[in-house]
Amino acid sequence: MTRIYISVGSNICPRENIPPALDDLYRRFGPLTLSRVFESEAVGFDGDNFLNFVVACDSQLSVAETAAALRRIELDHGRPPDAQKFSSRTVDLDLLLYGDAQCREPVVLPRGEIRDNAFVLWPLAELAPELILPGGDLPLSRLWQEFDKTQQKLWPVAFHWSPSGDMQ
């Protein structure tokens, strides 16, 4: 089992679209640990605000299989196969960390957005404050402490999810 961290985001009816995607994550990977949920303005394009947070869970799959499973969940929940990077989305699942793996294929790990986006770094630092990124030298709590928080506006919001239906 490998500990993985997944960034979750949505700005198209997020309170309706995120819970069923979390149910699918739970069915695929088992128990999930969620950070607080944050609302943030869209980055890189004009659009509705996003809800963003990070999920920690364990995977028995390879990096490629894990990335493919996340992509399948996105597609199953309305993300167009040809969605552009800076665009609105029903659900966005990005593999941030896969244990201590460092790679460029099939996905870049650790994901660069960790250091670049408050909506990724803040919730990740909450879940794993003492974790040092593979190839890094500072714990996530320190990276967040030193992050320029004037770059992006985000704020915690109330959000509740618990697994629903048959989770077998």
From TrEMBL:
This protein's pathway: Cofactor biosynthesis; tetrahydrofolate biosynthesis; 2-amino-4-hydroxy-6-hydroxymethyl-7,8-dihydropteridine diphosphate from 7,8-dihydroneopterin triphosphate: step 4/4
**Coiled-coil annotated spans:** none
> What are its GO biological-process terms?
folic acid biosynthetic process; tetrahydrofolate biosynthetic process
Work out whether the entry's keyword set contains Transferase. yes
Identify the InterPro entries for this entry.
Hppk, Hppk_sf
EC number(s) given by UniProt: 2.7.6.3
Q: Does the keyword Nucleotide-binding apply?
A: yes
Q: Which UniProt keywords apply?
A: ATP-binding, Folate biosynthesis, Kinase, Nucleotide-binding, Transferase
**Name of protein:** 2-amino-4-hydroxy-6-hydroxymethyldihydropteridine diphosphokinase
Origin species: Ferrimonas sediminicola
GN (gene name): folK
